[in-house]
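Re: the 341-residue chain
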Amino acid sequence: MGRSRRRPALATAGASLALALALSLSAALTSPAAADEQPPPTTGGINDHELHAGVSNISFEPANPPPGSALTAPTGWTPPACWLEPQYTPAQLKVEREGIWALSSTGDAWEQAEREYYVNGNPHTDFEIPNSDKGTWWNGVVNPNRKGDPASLKCFLEHSDWVLKGTASTKGVAVTSEILAKAAYDRIRVPDTDVALSPAAGSQTVNLNTWVWLDRADFKPVSVTARLPALGLWATTTATPIGLHLDAGTNDADLYPASGTCGLNQDGSIGTPYKTGDNDVTPPCGVTYRRSSTGGSYPLKATVTWQVQWRGSGGTGGDLPSGTFDRTTPVTVQEIQAIGR
C-alpha cells in the first residue's frame, strides 16, 4: 500500500514548514564591510561564524536588553517584523529536508516536488552540496521582538533560495546593515527615571513656580550593535536624548518655556535644579499652576525625545525615526501663598 496522504491541505509545503519554523526563530543587517573598516569591538562568541539551520545568525551587543523602557516612534513606525537571511549550509538543509520527508504524513506529490527542486536538478542538484563553498540557502526569519506580529510570517519562502556568496536573495526583503540597525532599535532601552521637581510632587502651590530638571547622569546616549558574521555585516544604533516636553495636565497652568519643550543643556542635562532664593526666578524648564487641584491631582507628563542614528558596515548609516518615552507624575496643587522647599 502506498504512503499515507493524510497531510493537511497546505497552500505550499515550503510555506507550511516556514510557519512552523517561525515560532522558533529570532533575528536582524546590508552591504559587506569594507576591508579597511573598523567596526565596534566584538564581545561574546559567534559560534565560529557557522550557520545554524532554522535559527537567525544575528547577534546583539548587549546580548539581552538592559533594564529600562523601549522607545516609541510618534509616527507609528516600527522596525520590520521579518526579513531574509542565510539560514542553511547545503549539508544542513539536506539533513533538515530529509528529516521532513521521512515523516509519513508529508504526501508523495509534495515530497516529489521538493526532491525535484532540491535534489534532481530542477533547478538544484543534491542541495548544492558540490558547491558548498560558493553559497548558502536563504529563508525568512522573525524579528525576535515582533514574534506576535502577524506580519512576522510574511517573509518565508516556499523553497529556500540558493544565494551565491557576495550577493543577496532577490526573493524578498533581504537582510542589510539598515535592517540590522532597525532590529537594534527594537532592543534600545532608555532609563525610566522620573524627572526631578521642586517643590516635590504633591507639594505644589498655586502661583508658585515648579522647577523641572533631569541630571546628565540619568539621560545619556544608549547604543545597541547587531552583527551578522556570515555576511560580514554589522550596525550600531544609538539613541541620544535631545529634549523634554512637559504637559501640565490642565489648561490652568503656565509652562516654561511656553512651548513646554525644554532643550538639552551643553553638559547633557535638561533644565536647572532649584536653588534657595530662586522663588521669584522663572525656571528654564518648569510649570506654574494657576488653580488648585481641588482635592485631586493633575497628571504632569514629562516626555523625553530621543534622536536615533545608526552607522554600519560598508560605510552605511543614517537616521531612524526619533523615539519618545514619557512618565506621568500626579501633582497636588494647594491654594496657599508660600511653601518651604
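The first helix runs from residue 13 to 22.
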